[in-house]
Design a protein that fits this description.
Radius of gyration: 22 Å
Main location: membrane
Subcellular location: Cell membrane; Membrane
GO molecular function: G protein-coupled receptor activity; olfactory receptor activity
Number of helices: 10
Strand order of the largest sheet: 2-1-3
Keywords: Cell membrane, G-protein coupled receptor, Membrane, Olfaction, Receptor, Sensory transduction, Transducer, Transmembrane, Transmembrane helix
Family: Belongs to the G-protein coupled receptor 1 family.
Order of helices and strands: EHHEHHHEHHHHH
Length: about 325
């Protein structure tokens, strides 16, 4: 390791924090989070395959849901494999370049998911408030453009965050107060005043997460206000409940982490675990447990596989 405190000398690696202080608890957490990651991979992959293969799910809502599950797969994979390896490692280190790559993909996929969740809220608004015009407004071409725009927005956001971070001088210390590389803990290690950078971070990450969350709440509030009958409101709330749950689980921690500069709390690592590892696992469970169409399509897909296997034998 080389992190000499000379001007112009960059650290070669960062040391990541441990989630738990003892070896025994690290091993136990390895088993727990290995299961969590496995459930995340299986659940989200199952939704992607189901949405892609079931004719009855070829609608804008399920097209967006399939893209959300794919983003959850990518989002969890950015941090989970490295975290699992570090549970069993004596030295939890990551090279400078790998740290910047992890930071880039974390914000790339995370911001794309924020934009996609906002698109999904617009889809529900049109479906509930303008049902007669829904097929013409939310056509496949527009959905594809909106998904592409979500990815492009994530790419632009991530590129800005990564460039701002990489341009900072890092000459030591090199201990990151988290189990993965993210902008807030990394820029605090820079050998310069980061006041302006942290303001830019809040205006970028904080504004995106808070702005999208406000748009989402406004969208669902508008839906409930425009529907006059109590029965209609209950049905609308039932349709949107799964989306609202996912939005709360994802945006709440993001706003807590990125909308406040200049300070760190001991609970930050637990909050990071929630939106990086736990939420991508819960998303498919929330959608499949509450959605009859998805569950029916999964059963049909399973029946086809069983029939195919029996024919093959």
């Amino acid at each position: 390791m080389d992190f000499r405190k000379k001007n112009g000398t960059r650290v070669n690696e960062f040391l990541l924090a441990a989630i738990s202080p003892t070896w025994e608890s690290q091993v136990a957490l390895f088993v727990v989070f290995l299961l969590v990651y496995a459930v995340t991979l299986i659940g989200n992959t199952l939704i992607v395959v189901t949405v892609g293969s079931a004719p009855q799910l070829r609608t804008p809502m399920y097209f967006l849901l399939g893209n959300l599950s794919f983003l959850d797969l990518c989002y969890s994979t950015v941090t989970a494999p490295k975290m699992l390896m570090d549970f069993l490692a004596e030295k939890r280190s990551i090279s400078f370049d790998a740290c910047m790559a992890q930071l880039f993909f974390l914000h790339f996929v995370g911001a794309a998911e924020m934009f996609l969740l906002t698109v999904m809220a617009y889809d529900r608004y049109v479906a509930i408030c303008k049902p007669l015009h829904y097929p013409s407004i939310m056509n496949r071409q527009l959905c594809s453009w909106l998904v592409a725009a979500s990815w492009m927005g994530g790419l632009i956001h991530s590129t800005v965050q990564t460039i701002l971070t990489m341009r900072l001088p890092f000459c030591g210390p090199n201990w990151v107060d988290n189990f993965f590389c993210d902008v807030p803990p990394v820029i605090k290690l820079a050998c310069t005043n980061t006041y302006v950078i942290e303001l830019l971070m809040v205006s970028n990450s904080g504004l995106i997460s808070t702005g999208c969350f406000v748009i989402l709440l406004t969208s669902y509030t508008t839906i409930l206000v425009k529907i006059r009958s109590p029965d209609g409101r209950r049905k609308a709330l039932s349709v949107c409940a799964s989306h609202l749950t996912v939005v709360t689980l994802f945006f709440g921690p993001c706003i807590f982490i990125y909308a406040r500069p200049f300070s760190t709390f001991s609970v930050d690592k637990l909050v990071s675990l929630l939106y990086n590892i736990i939420t991508p696992m819960l998303n498919p469970l929330i959608y499949t447990l509450r959605n009859k169409d998805v569950k029916m399509a999964m059963r049909k897909l399973r029946s086809k596989e069983i029939i195919a296997d029996s024919d093959g034998k």
